[in-house]
Amino acid sequence: MEDIKQFPIDAAHAQGAGSQALIDLVAEVTGAVAAPPEAIECVYLDTFDWRLYAADSVLEAVRDSRGWALTWSVLGDGRTLGRLSADQRPVFASDIEPAPARARLAATMDIRALMERVRVRLNRQPLALRNDDDKTVVRLALVEGTAIDPETGDEATLSARVTVQPVRGYDKAYDRIVTRLTDRFGAAVETGPLMVSALAAIGRTPGDYSSKIRLALARGTPAETALKDVCQTLLRVMERNVDGVLADTDSEFLHDFRVAVRRTRTALTQAKGVFPEAMRRRFADDFKWLGQLTGPKRDLDVFRLDVPGYQNRLPDDQAGALAPFQDFLDRRAQAALADLARALRSERYRRLVGDWRDMLHSPTPPVDPPPEAHTPIERLAARRIARAHKRVIKDGRRIDAQSPPEALHDLRKDAKKLRYQLEFFRSLFDADDVKTTVKALKQLQAVLGTYQDSAVQREALMAFGRAMTAETSPPPETLMALGTLTATLEDRQADARAHFADRFAAFDTADVADRIAHMSRDAEAAAKPPAPPPDRPPRAAGSKADKKAMRTATASKAKSETKTGKDKADKTKKPKKASKAKTGGRR
Description:
Elements: E1 5-8, H1 11-14, H2 19-30, E2 33-34, E3 38-46, H3 51-54, E4 57-64, E5 67-74, E6 80-86, H4 100-109, E7 115-130, E8 136-148, E9 155-166, H5 171-185, H6 194-201, H7 223-247, H8 251-270, H9 277-313, H10 323-344, H11 347-360, H12 377-398, H13 405-424, H14 431-471, H15 476-507, H16 510-527, H17 544-586
Antiparallel strand pairs: 1-9, 2-7, 3-4, 3-7, 4-5, 5-6, 7-8, 8-9
Helix pairs in contact: 7-8, 7-12, 8-9, 8-13, 9-10, 12-13, 12-16, 13-14, 14-15, 14-16
């Protein structure tokens, strides 16, 4: 990339001057001549969960007389990844005209919709420094702009800046202009992408939403406090997605909302003995209701997303046979959305969210708190994870070729609960232990998910076929296509069942078991009280070292007493010898 430098013109230098005064100021400092001004309005697009930003890229859209011109570039150095176009402001990748970069952009976005993250209105005044031959030797521009929040319409002024771009072969002129601008405005700055500056101006931070659990729980934290932190994080995810669910912007809003509900239900099972039991049961029932009411719309979303894949599985002569089925799904999805919207706007939902928030911010009952409320979270988490792992292993080992489908479905639910617990408490344990365990668990979940989803979809397709026949009398080829898909899903389910044993064996290993055990040992060691300092009284007798010391002391004492007794005996004998000698002398 060319060495383009930028010099902010702060309030001290501008001194309240208008645009023309700033142009005159730059011209005076550099000797450059102004060209006709340019007005540019652009929109920066990204998904709700910032997938383009996470991929170190940025998508800028500019509207002109021909439609929308899109520039997809690297966030860091501005290298162009692709130039694209669209008749209207694109929402999905399919709205963009075919181009080499569209497939890569679609893969990055996946199934999410593009949203306006920030709008920018720029006034750009080009200037050029010319030599005696009237050739441009340095290109400059005075750029002023306004950032606009697409959601609220609020505006924020961006700092005015002078950009300086070299022209090949005129390095000395470029260096001279850079020196003059540095002397007048200070050193050039690295401002980063305009999107980031504009977002900062309206008070937004790119990457400020993720459906993933990103908690840094501290060891020693009471279990009640830690679980409330987990639940508060999940509640924020739910609340961030409600508007997208109601607007039906894309299917992932409901998916993230639904996953947050499921995770909350798992957290509530972990809150046994931690939250007051009556309160825990009340919210467990409420979140079960919430999970159930999101089910119909989510199931239909999955079918609608799968229709292109269904079409690819059909013979060529049935390629267009699913159009009536797509219309049927769309009508059902709209009705399910209306039911869901009524529930999310209901008094019961508002009361649930309000009461749940109040509970999560309330202190532990001072009198007779739940028995596990003050347990260090790492000890509680390690015990619960070990128990969940044991359940998965026990139930998985019972499954054989004759096991009913319900056994695999129950195992899938148990595996999901174990994974949620590992995700909740990953910050408390060795990162490699958690990462390795989750990776093996995901592979098991994948085959269980394929098995269960194939069964559910196969049954649903048959039910949809009956419903379509009763409602609209679909063409025979549509019913035949659904029959073909039903058979395909049956084969897919059988294939997943055949791979179950291998996937389970890959999880049921000594390595995974050792990592789960290490989490428990590590948690117990962390919860032990610190060793006493050296100046404390010695510990009570009982250890081998204590007994040895006592034996040594006893032996020393006995030896000392023996020696003392011998000395006393010697002193007693000496007078007797002297008396005998004296008597003999008299004789």
